[in-house]
Specification:
The protein is mostly helical. The chain is built from 9 helices and no strands. It is 70% helix and 0% strand. The two termini are 22 Å apart. One of its GO terms (biological process) is transmembrane transport.
């Protein structure tokens, strides 16, 4: 996981990059393009969430049901994404794979982000020995090969959504802690924080009421990045055989299963891969939008 480059071109007060010779119509067009992108990204994620929820409650075809009368059938009205070599509906399996990826991403943000941000804010406010210990632990953890360790843990404990989600979340904690600590060091010098200290506010009140509400908006772009990273990590683990065991569907597992069927049924790999790419792109668009909005 890495933080995106925060360098951006100079913009006019309206938010669009423009110069003395930029026509008004061009400036308006440049402002509309990001809005359209944000709307499309939001619409895609909402639609995917609704479809995945519908699949989770059983409103789609059973993703594990074999139908040998429609083996390797091309996309059609009955099977929008086609079927695989066992006659299973790729559309239904892809939606169930989306649910698995969503669980991993949300657990990573809620658990890893929650613990990491609280730890980083606490270290940034306390400083001294506490800050040194947190800094040492984050440096050591970030230096570890996280994907290899996650794969090892999953192999030893058995592949399951809780194991995969919590292990990936554990490696997100130090990154969140480091970034939130850096934000806290800047916020701690603001007048309202100094006034709260002078008036005798407790450390917990300063953390929760003064500093944390200011840190969370700063962390939003990285939270979006972490959502995308967690989805990619889960997909990579499943693709390499360390994720959910077949026939349980996951995007990475579906892509891996379809490799042997590419000559006769390319849609088995193509459709979940397109869903994965569109989801990651949409999350990144919203993350970029939140970063620009914060600026």
């Amino acid at each position: 996981m890495s933080v995106t480059d925060l360098t951006t071109p100079l913009t006019s007060p309206s938010g669009a990059a423009s110069g003395p010779g930029t026509p008004p119509s061009a400036s308006v067009a440049r402002r509309r393009i990001p809005r359209v992108g944000v709307m499309l990204a939001t619409a895609w994620l909402v639609l995917l969430a609704i479809a995945a929820l519908a699949a989770a409650v059983g409103l789609t075809v059973d993703p594990l049901a074999n139908d040998y009368s429609v083996i390797s059938q091309a996309p059609s009205l009955a099977h929008p994404f086609g079927t695989d070599n066992l006659g299973r509906d790729v559309f239904s399996r892809s939606l169930h794979g989306a649910a698995a990826s969503a669980v991993v991403a949300l657990v990573t943000v809620v658990v890893g982000g929650g613990i990491g941000i609280l730890l980083g804010v606490w270290a940034g406010l306390r400083r001294g020995f506490a800050d040194a210990v947190v800094g040492f632990l984050t440096d050591v953890t970030i230096a570890l090969p996280s994907l290899i360790i996650v794969a090892t843990i999953v192999t030893l404990t058995g592949p399951s959504l809780p194991t995969i989600s919590l292990t990936i979340a554990g490696f997100a904690i130090p990154v969140f802690a480091r970034l939130s600590r850096s934000a806290t060091l800047a916020i701690a010098t603001e007048n309202y924080v100094i006034v709260a200290r002078t008036l005798g506010a407790s450390g917990w009140r300063i953390l929760t009421r003064e500093v944390l509400p200011s840190v969370l908006p700063i962390m939003m772009p990285f939270i979006m990045t972490t959502l995308a990273t967690a989805i990619v990590a889960e997909g990579a683990l499943s693709f390499l055989g360390f994720g959910l065991r077949p026939p349980e569907p996951s995007w990475g597992g579906l892509i891996a299963e379809g490799r042997t069927q590419l000559p006769v049924a390319p849609w088995v790999t193509l459709m979940p891969a397109l869903l994965l790419c569109a989801t990651i792109l949409s999350i990144n668009v919203l993350g970029e939008h939140s970063r620009e909005a914060k600026r």
